[in-house]
């Protein structure tokens, strides 16, 4: 009997680990190549191939991005509640594949897009049928993204058993290399794929990621037998609602004098706490009333209580964990607001500057994002190989520093990124004034576009610290049974940051308007605007956000977790430890 149990433990330890990473990363890399490749150059396809008006094409992309930002909540809910992460990723990848095949087909078959413009000016816009195929394709890819984005990162982290000392300490490495793989795939998309689309054809431009996605599905499924699979444990939202309702119903009860008197039931908690039980904390004690046992709550041994009236300490602490994560989640929104400017105003700056590398070749302004990606990749590599070993000597932590400190460093670097952007804009406008070009927005100002490299690079460095720290935070501090949902929250912070950017630009444009066309953000002539003031406004908002974040981080309470640690020695005896992750 003992030999059989030992054998089972030995087999379980072989599941997961670093060996699964190539299978999982293959899926994520191809998804990023497809999404970034589409988004970076999709406006060209819609306007030049489908002959859409610019505003309609822009709205199409906005609607697609908005839908793709919301669907991760649906995918995470399905994964956590019903089918698990593996099958959610697999089915979502197939949906994505179908959408990509449909889009590629429409780019290849002449009858599925309007004919070329006559004389270069008379253009026939895409018909309703042709647009229907486009919207159907984009909808399928948005649904596919919803299943892939929140589940791939958490499924990969699941491969490292937190109760196994040999695997649990490798999670921080996984997040670093996950983001590295994602950044590398984005770099390929904004360079190679965009080049193929512009110079070889849209058939190959869409066809290459379609083929890559097909291969990634095959690769991902082939790894099934070596993955560490965690079964879904029911709707996490239902459990959170049950605790809220039970606490409200018992709001008038007196608190028990000792937390040990609160309700515990391992039978109903075991399916949602494989890595260990959440222990009681003294924060938000009003929620503890959901775990107070009254006369009407008493049930026979072995029976399940009415969870709308009585909940366990573990389930109460799940809700507390989600609430505690909220303020830290919000701190990432401003970072994305600042980051998004490099695809709008920084790009607009670049179009006015000297972009010549040689007499016959100019750098596309949109390609400057390569410096963001390259810096991000270099920072991740140096962080993992140099910074962590050095920091570990001083802190004693396997990950070098806590993910909260890592996020704080990223926020500080982002402040310098927008601060530098403002000074570069003043330099650009000064050169325009010296050469008398301030009234000629279409003229090239004799200042190299490489002046923009510092702000792009600082944004990349900030993302390497903040975004990866954010991912680690969500995975580590979310309730075990809600990790896909937590990853979806990461994507919603990105969505919220972009929406906040839109709102901020709209408000600044409206309230800085003055006589004779004066405006910080002029539509007709960036040389006569005050873009540097906008950058510094964003800088100021980031300073306030940093102060807010420091306060939240100081007050944050890590979830205390009681886990069964597997002791790797000849005795094979399990040891209960209290884990307070940092």
Automatic annotation (TrEMBL):
A GO term from the CC aspect: membrane
Keyword Cell inner membrane found: no
Pfam families: PTR2 (PF00854)
One GO MF term: transmembrane transporter activity
Protein location: Membrane
InterPro entries found in the cross-reference section: MFS_trans_sf, POT_fam, PTR2_symporter_CS
GO biological process, one term: oligopeptide transport
Keyword terms, alphabetized: Membrane, Transmembrane, Transmembrane helix
Membrane topology: Multi-pass membrane protein
Tree of life domain: Eukaryota
Transmembrane intervals: 86-112, 132-156, 177-196, 202-227, 363-383, 403-424, 488-513, 533-551
Family recorded in the similarity comment: Belongs to the major facilitator superfamily. Proton-dependent oligopeptide transporter (POT/PTR) (TC 2.A.17) family.
Protein name: Protein NRT1/ PTR FAMILY 3.1
Organism field: Cucurbita maxima
Highest classification ranks of the organism: Eukaryota, Viridiplantae, Streptophyta, Embryophyta, Tracheophyta
Chain's gene name: LOC111489833
